[in-house]
């Protein structure tokens, strides 16, 4: 199967937003820090344009409120705008009420900016984990139609939803049916290796992500790639704190643009909403 179109997704946030950086940059300091995304994001937009790729950009509401032109630019170049919540807090720390305000506010902000419905959501640090399924109901009630927050692994200390299916699937909830787009894993010898992007793409050999996407292709299903602007931005903050944490968050950035070129040459991609539309139609026909 070579006609499978995978999903190229970007979590649009600043270098001070990843969970690993919360000990260094408190929420109160964010407004005083230089923002890098207005410089970094266009580099990727040019790369995607050159390969005729359109993707899905999960934009953090906090950033959209401060960089509205950047969000409009992403949308005007044909990409889907989706939500990464408002303030980059973990879902299992927010609780249901604050989660609801976070996803409602970011949806409203983004829709006002781009003038079309925002259908999808990805949780900061994949923080929908077992026991947090109420989040699916909240998303449905707030008008979302798909989620891309589940990582089907059991090996990460702070995230992972081991029972998630490997390919896009419907989650039936009291509030309706939500289409889930799990992060891609590569199965080998009975083990599941994360092969979806982020640090796994930046620090491990690139063939791992390629192999994960090819396995999806063999099943005839789209795989999920994800990346953050601070992973390809040349500039990095001189942060105090753990050296190991810094390495895990920022090391390997010089190769990320080159590696994304390699992906763009090898695979076809389309926005997630296209798979949502197709699977919604198929579900309508079968019921
Ligand atoms: Zn994030």
What is this structure, in a nutshell?
The chain is α/β, with parallel strands linked by helices and 287 residues long. The chain has eleven helices and eleven strands.
CATH architecture: Alpha-Beta Barrel
Hetero compounds:
zinc ion
How far do the termini sit from each other?
Answer: 27 Å
- The CATH class assignment is Alpha Beta
Please state the oligomeric state of the protein chains shown. single chain
Helical amount among residues, as a percent range? 40-55%
CATH homologous superfamily grouping = Glycoside hydrolase/deacetylase
Shape: globular
The radius of gyration computed from the alpha-carbon positions, rounded to a whole number of angstroms, is 18 Å
Structural class: alpha/beta
Q: How would a textbook summarize the main sheet?
A: 5 strands, parallel
What is the element string, with H for helices and E for strands? EHEHHEHEHEEEEEHHEHHHEH
Query: How many domains?
Result: 1
Summed up, the helix count is 11
CATH T-level topology: TIM Barrel
Total count of strands: 11
Mean pLDDT: 93
Regions with pLDDT < 50 over 5+ consecutive residues? none
Assess the beta-strand content as a share of residues: 15-25%
């Amino acid at each position: 199967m070579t006609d499978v179109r995978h999903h190229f997704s970007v979590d649009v946030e600043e270098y001070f937003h990843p969970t690993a950086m919360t000990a260094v940059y408190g929420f109160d300091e964010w407004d005083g820090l230089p923002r890098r995304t207005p410089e970094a994001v266009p580099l990727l937009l040019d790369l995607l344009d050159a390969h005729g790729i359109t993707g899905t950009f999960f934009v953090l509401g906090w950033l959209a409120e401060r960089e509205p032109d950047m969000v409009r630019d992403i949308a005007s170049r044909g990409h889907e705008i989706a939500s990464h919540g408002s303030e980059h807090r973990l879902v299992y720390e927010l609780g249901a009420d604050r989660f609801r305000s976070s996803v409602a506010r970011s949806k409203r902000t983004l829709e006002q900016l781009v003038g079309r419905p925002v259908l999808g959501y990805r949780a900061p640090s994949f923080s929908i984990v077992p026991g947090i399924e109420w989040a699916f109901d909240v998303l449905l009630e707030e008008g979302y139609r798909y989620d891309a927050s589940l990582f089907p692994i059991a090996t990460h200390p702070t995230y992972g939803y081991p029972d998630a299916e490997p390919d896009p699937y419907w989650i039936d909830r009291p509030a309706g049916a939500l289409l889930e787009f799990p992060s891609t894993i590569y199965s080998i010898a009975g083990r599941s290796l994360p092969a979806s992007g982020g640090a796994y793409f930046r620090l491990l050999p690139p063939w791992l992500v390629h192999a994960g996407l090819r396995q999806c292709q063999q099943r005839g299903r789209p795989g999920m790639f994800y990346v953050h602007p601070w992973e390809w931005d040349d500039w990095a903050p001189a942060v105090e704190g753990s050296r190991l944490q810094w390495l895990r968050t920022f090391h390997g950035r010089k190769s990320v643009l080159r590696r994304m070129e390699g992906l763009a040459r090898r695979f076809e991609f389309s926005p997630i909403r296209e798979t949502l539309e197709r699977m919604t139609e198929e579900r309508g026909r079968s019921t």
